[in-house]
Amino acid sequence: MRVAFLGTPEAAVPTLRGLVDAGHEVVVVITRPDRRRGRGSTLVASPVKGAALEFGLPVGYSLRDIDVHTVERGVVVAYGAIIPASLLAEVPMLNVHFSLLPRWRGAAPVHRAILAGDQETGVSIISLEATLDTGPVHLERRVPIEGMNVQELTHELAELGAVALLEVLATPVLLDSPSVQVGEATYAEKLTKETFHLAPASSAELVLRTVRLGGAFFFIGAKRFSAIAAHASDTHVGEGVVAWVNGELLLGTRLGAVALDQIRPEGSNTMSAKSWWVGHQGPDGQLTWH
């Protein structure tokens, strides 16, 4: 099948690779433009562009680049921009969406599933519509979350989505007969800085889920700390207390406490929570966090 592929992050690469390996003719890859990163503001290509160049595929940055090709289908995986209705009227497109639609339509479905404490999630292969993630479902595949962090879960969904997309393309009854989404729609709103700011007034469970997103942080005094890894603790300390108890560095919340495994103090490298506590506070005493 002659396919236009639209995607940007690493999570889209397994589907692009799967299309190539399965013998589909990927006539053009549309991705987001190179971005400046790092202290030197070096231009860095998207992971999808890097994979496309490795496969020897033509790369474009504008949806108009599709117009010069004869395309049977578009395949979209985390492209990062809205596809206009005018283009969808010309080129039918399949979307690999990382949730069990209609739950978690929108920009951050993996993060929101973890943050909400969902027991399972999955991938939905849908026909793309101009409205947000509302298209009929060709195939869904489920996976238990089981404490995975966002990187682990995204990787698993990316691999699962690639297999599911190829199954749809290879199965006429799946490709031609999608089903209308059923259930209550929820929306995966974009993440903000405050999404990752841990708060003593929340529960220990919510703190742990936030740590699994990556990028969680808190403050002791004016100094910021990144919470890299943590686990649940049966020991309780007061809300807003930081204390070393029974061999664990605990953050006290309104409901329970969280034991920190690894942290990164502002301006320092990642270290074990014990190393930080011994080096900065000593074996006894307590601090407060916010």
What does this structure look like?
The structure is a single chain. The chain has 290 residues and is α/β, with parallel strands linked by helices. The chain folds into 2 domains: 2-188, Formyl transferase, N-terminal domain (Rossmann fold, 3-Layer(aba) Sandwich), CATH 3.40.50.170; 193-288, Methionyl-tRNA Fmet Formyltransferase, Chain A, domain 2 (Roll), CATH 3.10.25.10. It has helices at 13-21, 47-55, 85-90, 109-115, 150-170, 172-176, 204-213, 273-280; strands at 2-7, 25-30, 35-37, 42-44, 59-60, 73-77, 93-97, 105-106, 120-127, 137-144, 187-188, 217-220, 223-233, 241-245, 248-252, 257-265, 271-272, 286-288.
In short:
It is built from eight helices and 18 strands. With 290 residues, it is of the alpha/beta class.
What's the CATH superfamily of the largest domain, by name?
Formyl transferase, N-terminal domain
Low-pLDDT ranges = none
What's the domain count? 2
Order of helices and strands: EHEEEHEEHEEHEEHHEHEEEEEEHE
Identify the CATH architecture of the largest domain.
3-Layer(aba) Sandwich
Q: What class do helices, strands and sheet pairing give?
A: alpha/beta
Major β-sheet, in short? 7 strands, mixed
Shape: elongated
Question: According to CATH, what is the class of the largest domain?
Answer: Alpha Beta
The average pLDDT value, as a whole number, equals 94
Strand arrangement in the largest pleated sheet: 5-2-1-6-7-9-10
